[in-house]
Amino acid sequence: MKRFLLVLLTLTVLMPSSWAEPMTTEQLHADLASLKLAITQQPKVALNYVKRGDIYYLLNEQQHAVEDYSTALKLDDTQDNAYFGRGMAYGRIGMVDEGIADLSVYIKRHPDSSVAYTKRGVRNIWRKNLQAAEQDLSRAIALDPDSAEAHDDLGVVNAQQQRLGMAAKHFSTAIKLDPTYQKAYHNLAMCYYIAGQTQHALDEVNTGLGLDPDNRNSLLLKATILQEMGREAEAKKVAEQAEFLPEAHWTERSAIGGVAK
Question: pTM to 2 decimals?
Answer without folding.
Answer: 0.85
